[in-house]
Amino acid sequence: MALWGGRFSESAKKNVQDFTESISYDRRLYRHDIQGSKAHAAMLGAAGIIPKESAKAICAKLDEIEQMIDRGDFSFSAELEDIHMHIETKLIEMLGDEGARVHTARSRNDQIALDIRLYLRDAIDLVSSHIRELQKSLIRQADANKRTIMPGFTHMQHAQPVVLAHHLLAYVEMLERDLGRLSDARKRINVLPLGSGALAGTTLPIDREFVRKQLNFPAMSRNSMDAVADRDFSCELLSALSIFCMHISRLSEDLILWMSQEFGFMVFSDAFCTGSSLMPQKKNPDIAELSRGKTGRVYGDLVALLTLCKGLPLTYNRDLQEDKEPLFDALDTVEGILSVYPQMIESMKVFPERMKKAASEPGLMATDLAEALVRKGVPFRHAHHKVGELVRYAQDH
Questions:
Q1: Residue 276 annotated as catalytic
Q2: With 0-12 CB in 10 A as exposed, 13-18 as middle and 19+ as buried, what is 214?
Q3: What percent helix, strand, coil does the chain show, rounded to 5?
């Protein structure tokens, strides 16, 4: 019988267990679940809600359980539903009645809200450090191409001459805004929800401030009903990741075009390309193409979570179990992109003469000519019109 099974006269059927389980994907939260449980147990002991010796024993056994999972010596089963029940069941198996004290003054509702927030704090820090590495790769390429002249584009038409460094640094600016959005999201993630119980707190004299300090949260949730129902922070993070992927997709599109024979501006190292199973001559920019394609996947994760949350009444509903798969998928997808993209940028070999030739079309200086007339006192609209006439005359003759 499940730990919550006192109310029930029979166990759930096997197909019901398989349908309702989340351990197949939420097991990745085990470190954070144990981290939260240790802080909670320590608080229960310090507050005199459970014996201090019980709290110490619980924390020691939780450390052992974490080591077991690290080693792969831990059995997972759909019957125990989720990571919380697996760890608590093992704790009770190891400590008996003393282990059964760990869930005092807490619900799985505030427990999972805590686990996700702890997990996302670490995930944002990791993603942010990898975005910094991508910025550094772009800056190194920009530094090597300060004088590499190329055509700038609007409407996919040659517009004005620019330098490659300026083009690449535009993406550094986009990534900086992505870092800002992740940092802002982290602030709203970094709030302690534990102590909210299932929805209405607890009658026991818990010390939330103790737990806040233990887990290094700068703030605590103020409304217990909101704390267990809130997934805004996950939606916000997925939005930030979606915008990041949009930037990666735009950069990928540029790079794919530049590597085409029609442009011939650059090429990636063989280590970051693939070939064709039929055409021996092919060298394809698959990382850039897949990154562009995976953007749609992350968008889908965001829409899935927004749709999941849009009709839920307060407070916790089992629908919220479905929040983790899109969240994990988006983070895994972004991590996958960032694991290869900086190195691919580093491998980029530029062909400056090809770029310069494309930028040498005389029409690209039309704006400069109009501005030269402005410096002579000609109103800009007149100058623009006269230079346009000159361009048309040159093309006709």
A1: yes
A2: middle
A3: 70, 5, 25
Tell me whether residue 328 is exposed, middle or buried, using C-beta atoms within 10 angstroms of its C-beta: 0 to 12, 13 to 18, 19 or more: middle
* Residue closest to 359 by CA, chosen among 170, 169, 167: 167
Read off the pLDDT of residues 38-83 as tens digits, 9 standing for 90 and up.
999 999 999 999 999 999 999 999 999 999 999 999 999 999 999 9
Tokens for 120, please give them.
Answer: 């996302």
Query: How many other C-beta atoms can be found within 10 angstroms of the C-beta atom of residue 341?
Result: 23
User: Tokens in use for 45?
Assistant: 């002991």
- Token pair in block for residue 205: 């004299």
Task: Report which residue type is found at 357.
Answer: K
- 3-state DSSP call for residue 170? helix
Is residue 379 predicted with pLDDT exceeding 90?
yes
Close Cβ partners of 315 (under 8 Å, ≥ 6 residues apart):
109, 198, 199, 225, 228, 229
Give the span between the Cα atoms of 321 and 82, in whole angstroms.
Answer: 10
- 86 catalytic, yes or no? no
Read off the pLDDT of residues 336-359 as tens digits, 9 standing for 90 and up. 999 999 999 999 999 999 999 999
Which is the catalytic residue, given 9, 75, 155, 397? 155
Catalytic residue among 11, 129, 260, 276: 276
Q: Residue 313, CB half-sphere, CA atoms under 13 Å: how many?
A: 0
Query: Cis omega (within 30 of 0) on the bond before 315?
Result: yes
Q: What's the CA gap between 91 and 333, in Å, rounded? A: 34
